[in-house]
Design brief:
12 helices; mainly alpha; single chain
Length: 243
């Protein structure tokens, strides 16, 4: 009987993410990231105009700032362009595929290879690789960041509502091709029944916005408050102990 009660209690505690909740998160994203969100669509327009490299640099500079800014002076544009072209060619058979309806298993080696090639480029890294893959195929590949993959602020991460109530795993995704592949599989399963038709946003983009609003934003707010408190402490005058 006690076991049954615990089971019912655990079930009630689990976060029930509905399509309505999911849609509200995508709308919240548009409010939070109005400026950078518009840059994303500018990047897509550049790609459609054939200015692929320009689009990629725009996204790396605005959505992968931490890694890209330190490599900007020595960023090898030609090598990057060649790598992206090679990966894009390899992924051509998946051009019309989307995350929700694609069997990823046959493409696992290619996904791992593509992610690794991009991750190893200085200025791209673990986070940037996912964003570049998303630009190559916005329907199939899903961006992530160090907050979303559970790498940063572990205690706070585990206390997030989506994690604490069982919707999102409490562990870390490895920062490599294997970890990214597992991340795609998990999101495919978690969000299959939540995505909706949107003429502007692919399923992968919708999922990314939900993750950003429910994981990245709360953790960044906590981080910002702590940093503000730290700076205020540093500003306080020191009390002299001299008699």
């Amino acid at each position: 009987m006690d076991g049954f009660i615990r089971l019912v209690s655990d079930y009630k505690m689990r976060l029930n993410v509905t399509t309505g909740t999911f849609k509200r998160a995508t709308k919240e994203f548009d409010k939070i990231e109005d400026a950078r969100g518009k840059l994303y669509y500018n990047a897509l327009r550049l790609i459609n105009a054939g200015l692929v490299l320009d689009a990629h640099i725009l996204i790396l500079a605005t959505w992968n700032t931490a890694a890209f800014r330190y490599a900007l002076r020595k960023f090898n544009l030609e090598a990057y362009q060649q790598t992206v072209h090679s990966i894009s060619s390899d992924l051509t058979p998946l051009r019309a595929s989307d995350l929700i309806h694609t069997d990823l298993a046959p493409h696992r080696p290619l996904i791992l290879k593509s992610f690794t090639a991009l991750k190893n480029i200085r200025g791209v890294g673990v986070t940037g690789a996912s964003k570049v893959l998303h630009l190559i195929n916005t329907g199939l590949f899903l961006p992530w960041d160090n907050y979303i993959r559970g790498q940063k602020m572990r205690k706070d991460f585990k206390n997030l509502t989506v994690v604490r109530r069982g919707f999102w795993p409490s562990g870390k995704f490895e920062g490599n091709g294997r970890g990214y592949y597992k991340f795609l599989l998990m999101c495919q399963q978690k969000f299959r029944h939540l995505v909706f038709h949107d003429s502007q946003k692919t399923y992968a983009k919708q999922i990314d916005e939900f993750n950003f609003v429910n994981i990245t934003v709360p953790l960044q707010k906590i981080q910002g408050k702590r940093e503000k408190a730290r700076k205020q402490r540093l500003k306080r005058p020191r009390v002299s102990r001299d008699k």
